[in-house]
Amino acid sequence: MPEIKKAHEAMDVMRKTGVIHAHLSKDGTPEKVLFSQLPYIEEGNLNSPESIARLKKFGESARNRVDAVVSLGIGGSFLGNKVLFDVQCGSYWNLKTKEERNGYPKVFFSGNNIDPRSTKDLIDYISHAADMAMNHDKKNPHKYTVMLICISKSGGTLDTMSNFMVIYNALKDNPNVEIEIVAVTDPNEKKPTLLKKMAMENNWESFAVPDGIGGRFTIFCEVGLVLAAVTGFDIEAFLEGAKQMDIACQNDDIWQNPAMLNAALKYIAAEKYGRDEEVMMPYGDYLESVSMWYIQLLAESLGKQFDKDDKEVCYGRTPIVALGTRDMHSQTQQHQEGKLNKIVQFIRINEWDNDITIPNAFPEAQKLSDISGVTMGQALEVARQSNADALTSNKRFNALFSMPKLDAFNLGQLLYMLAMSIAYEGELANVDAFNQPGVEAYKRIMGPKLQEVKAQNK
Ligand SMILES: O=P(O)(O)OC[C@H]1O[C@](O)(CO)[C@@H](O)[C@@H]1O
Q1: Which residues form a coiled coil (predicted)?
Q2: Atom 8, ligand 1: which residue's CA is nearest?
Q3: Taking the complete model, does pTM exceed 0.80, yes or no?
Q4: Does residue 227 contact residue 84 with C-beta atoms inside 8 Å?
Q5: Which is nearest to 377 in space by CA: 280, 281, 283, 282?
Q6: Which domain range does residue 59 map to?
Q7: Same domain, 51 and 196
Q8: Model confidence over 323-334: pLDDT tens digits?
Q9: Whose CA is nearest to atom 9 of ligand 1?
Q10: Same domain, residue pair 40 and 20
Q11: Active site residues
């Protein structure tokens, strides 16, 4: 297909020069697209040996010193970090002892909504933990050190900054709390973002969301890697996985290039078969956040009203989060028999660490006896395969991404492949996959509205 060849050439140009035809930044000026550089830890690159060494040092300095990290951000400044946290730490991290956490801090997320109840709950939790640390820890009474990692590329996003101010204000005069602030934002010091300016004025440690890296690609830069560092996640293995995938994606044979194949199939499914919804259904609890991360990647990249020639196309697919096996008992009915407009994608872990055999705990109960004697990983895969077979038998498009193991390397491979596939599809559909003009519409309404409410409050 000549279109695929052309898209592949465009990816080659992007890799070598950062240029994506017709891509403009928010202010209408040409802007480079540099995410494909991030997997390469090299001198002079966005991720360099020095920057990785600094991140590791930063992570080590938090270890056995910082009690809790609050990661504040939204969109690309949150979703990738949640993926890394889930894969590295799992659901029970904050319930573990410091020793079980290897000395790394507890981690909380905030700023991804403007919800007074959950923000207050977090403040109450930290205040209580600080009181316990100072007044009830007989062996080691200490101030509770809280690191607020404030992440915003633009440096002023309402959701992030409002929570930042509320939490900071609530904790700053607490005698039991020691606050440290880390800013992750556009590093330009000449035209600083609000957050960068505050970081410079207050001497806060800061990390970069570099130019040319859109929010939804920031998991591979310091946005994701700062959180990786404070949880002991293997940064190098993660980037190595992404790098190996990038190398595979340089192949011009579609059967050897996973991103090209994935993009071509999805483009055909959309254009020829009217598949305009995309279900991402990982099998495994700690991968649900991959599906949530993917929502932004797909929606902001391909959901475009106009193509690069200003023709109205209204392109894109609506992303849907699903989790196997949970949503087999809720969504699958719709996937199996509803509108013929979906692509269902599965993610499977081939080999689980510490897989558990389902025991024959009640031998007298025949039905339970029948499901015993296999591992949970095996049962999970039987469920997934059965779902896929049923969908296929009813002309329902479905695909499978297999991860050999749930680890940093394989996660890097998977996420990078999805990012690169989106870039390919942008070229196939002739839409700019690297802007998000549609999010400005509500922002233009929201700013003045907030000021109106403020005026009424006076
Ligand atoms: O990092 P920032 O600038 O706070 O933006 C957060 C998110 O908001 C968006 O700009 C959409 O409103 C996303 O593209 C971005 O990831």
Answers
A1: none
A2: 75
A3: yes
A4: yes
A5: 283
A6: 35-233
A7: yes
A8: 999 999 999 999
A9: 75
A10: no
A11: 300, 329, 443
